[in-house]
Amino acid sequence: MRHARVKLEGRGCYHVVSRIVDRNFRLTDAEKEIFRKMMRKAEAFSGVKILTYALMSNHFHLLVEVPEKQDVNEDELVRRMRILYGQARVADTLRQWDEWRSMGQARLVDEEQVRLRARMGDISAFMKTLKQRYSVSYNARHKRRGTLWEERFKSVLVEGREQAKATVAAYIDLNPVRAKVVSDPKEYRWSGYGEACGGGRVAREGLAQVHESRHLEVSSTEVHRHKTGHKRGQAAAEVVRLDWRRVGARYRVLLYVAGEEKREA
Prior knowledge:
Blueprint: E1 12-19, H1 29-46, E2 49-55, E3 59-66, H2 74-85, H3 87-102, H4 106-118, H5 123-141, E4 154-157, H6 162-173, H7 175-178, H8 192-197, H9 201-210, E5 216-223, E6 236-242, H10 244-255, H11 258-264
Antiparallel strand pairs: 1-3, 1-4, 2-3, 5-6
Helix pairs in contact: 1-2, 1-5, 2-3, 3-4, 6-10, 6-11
């Protein structure tokens, strides 16, 4: 019997796992790279933040944070669509919208935009977008038909304080170590920690978010000189930047403490 999926209304953090059908080892290194790119596009479209991940040969783990529902205006909607679907397809969509509006059928535009917005800020919609798009891509490349994934993805609601998220994040990033693929998690390219150690900005931001507000460092005051004519001293602002050295060092301790604790549990 299928059980209802546990989801919070609004913001929530989830550990998600999905497996290849029959547990076949289909995700080669090249396929993992394709999947990762699609994953990042789905993330940008949906607004669901990937805190960390591990792409293995026959399954993947994600730690994601779903934000509070936000108002997405048309400009922001179109920006996200371009990331997911590409410039050409979105250009066709915009022409169709203009045509509908010129014909007095603006309600058709509104209805389509409602459907697109409904796919944002929702863990199930995010996973459906990611898995379906990758399945179609994979089957086309390998001249294959049929389902690629086991029927449902598994998700666990991660509740509690920062330590709960950190423990699950560390457990996920240690997957390739436990599988004896690498001896050090930073050596595995297809994980949040590995991507972050390789300089990936989005991956670093995800791991920083695991630690919530304690991942930022305020630099010295910078003076912004604009073409509007602001001179030194007229437009001063504090610049907040990610301190990856501090985040990375702290997270590495978690990898060998919290991650191992979760495995034993």
